[in-house]
Amino acid sequence: MRLPYIADPPPTSTPDEAEILARVQARRAPNGILPLDRALLYSYPVADGWNSFIGAIRTKSSLTTVIRELVICRVAVLNGALFEWEQHAPLLTQGGLGDAALKVVGDAGADITAKVTEEVLSVAEGAVLRYTDAITKTVRVPDEVFEAVKERFNDREVVEITTTAAAYNCVSRFLVALDVGEKNH
């Protein structure tokens, strides 16, 4: 990483910091904190907000594991966030996405429409990948791309797909900029 990691366990100097650290550790249990946490904990308030926001996206949304992790993994690929990919691709596989579909997600230049036609991806998965691509690459989502997602997901799910893509664009940019996990430089 481009900065030294905070010690593990991280030192705390106030009761507020100790509470924040306990929340981060609780979300990561039973595996312990990640290098990402050891970078974020330079700023306890930022780590706390991050933990709460990303924790909600990861554990409190109504999205299926496949849809959530499809978005996260695609953002990782498009932004070159290898640490993020390594953390989330196994979750996508565990969620039930097949190997051929995982290869499509991992290929930033894949023809999503062709892979839906070939039934490597479902229509819903293809719509989510095109939507994630638009959010990540250009920010603006063409109407037809939005409508394809809106036809297959309810309003809450559309918001959760959108916030997942937005949040993990933030995550990937942090990971790549600081080279968290030593994967990007």
Summarize the structure.
The protein is mainly alpha-helical and 185 residues long. It folds into two domains: 15-59, no CATH class; 65-178, AhpD-like (Up-down Bundle), CATH 1.20.1290. It has ten helices and no strands.
What coarse outline follows from CA principal-axis ratios? elongated
CATH architecture of the largest domain: Up-down Bundle
Order of helices and strands: HHHHHHHHHH
Q: CATH first level of the largest domain: which class?
A: Mainly Alpha
Largest sheet: none
Name the average pLDDT: 95
Q: In the residues, how many domains can be counted?
A: 2
Strand content: under 5%
Radius of gyration: 17 Å
Low-confidence stretches: none
- How would you classify the quaternary structure? single chain
State the CATH superfamily name of the largest domain.
AhpD-like
Number of helices: 10
Helix content: 55-70%
CATH topology of the largest domain: AhpD-like
Quantity of strands, as a count: 0
Give the termini distance in whole angstroms. Answer: 9 Å
InterPro entries: AhpD-like, CMD-like
Domain Carboxymuconolactone decarboxylase-like: 46-102
Pfam families: CMD
Protein name: AhpD-like protein
